[in-house]
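Let us walk through a complete example step by step. Step one is to write down the protein sequence. Step two is to encode the small molecule, S-adenosylmethionine, as a SMILES string so that its atoms and bonds are unambiguous. Step three, shown after the inputs, is the structure prediction itself.
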Amino acid sequence: MEAKNIEQTLDKMRRDWDERARENARFYVNTERTDWTDAEFFASGERTVAEEILTDMINICQGRDPLTMRVIEIGCGAGRITRALAKRFGEVYAVDVSGEMVAQARQACADLPNVHVFQNNGMDLSVLPDIGYDFAFSTIVFQHIPSREVIVNYVRETGRLLKPGSLFKFQVQGDASISTEPDDTWLGVPFTDEQACAMAEECGFEPRYRHGAGEQYFWLWFFKK
Ligand SMILES: C[S@@+](CC[C@H](N)C(=O)[O-])C[C@H]1O[C@@H](n2cnc3c(N)ncnc32)[C@H](O)[C@@H]1O
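Step three: the predicted structure of the complex.
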């Protein structure tokens, strides 16, 4: 993609997500409900962490005490999962392209001094301090990104910041029948299993486990080489 086009895509992602956040951030974060209470919204984040993280602590921690671990979260939205991560891990560094979402996440985590939320440019992690991270996580974010180049760049950037051997666990759209337009910031580009493995190789990861190829929730376990 040409530089001009990528700038346009990043700008569109930021504007669209700001607009969604102003309209009803919690609905666009988790479309199960339009009228989330605080308690229900954050309980849904706890459920995601219970299902995707607490069941997988062997791969995630590899013997380390989670309270000593630094975690990256890409696309934190309104802090739904960020809060739950912060209760279990030492430090959470979260990014989101939308300043409106970032404001909501900061408010949601204001009582948690181990949470650091940053607005980024929508394609790299240069806003995060380069201090070595032990785990990275992202869900229902890349499935909205219409540019393969942006997603690959996030994987490369995560590889730059993770300590060797550490895990980046994330979800992409795996349903290849999805067709997306460069300016559609709701339906992201799909990945086949082969494309996911090629992305891992290109970015310095071992794609050790994959689950859900061909489905919307295609989960990838990339271990930094
Ligand atoms: C459906 S919400 C999910 C939020 C959070 N992961 C959760 O599950 O609660 C998607 C989030 O991804 C963010 N996002 C979309 N494209 C992004 C990009 N290119 N870079 C960073 N964040 C992005 C949006 O602003 C939004 O907050």
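Step four is interpretation. Residues 13, 17, 28-29, 75-77, 80-81, 96-98, 101, 122, 139-141, 144-145, 150 surround S-adenosylmethionine (CB under 6 Å).
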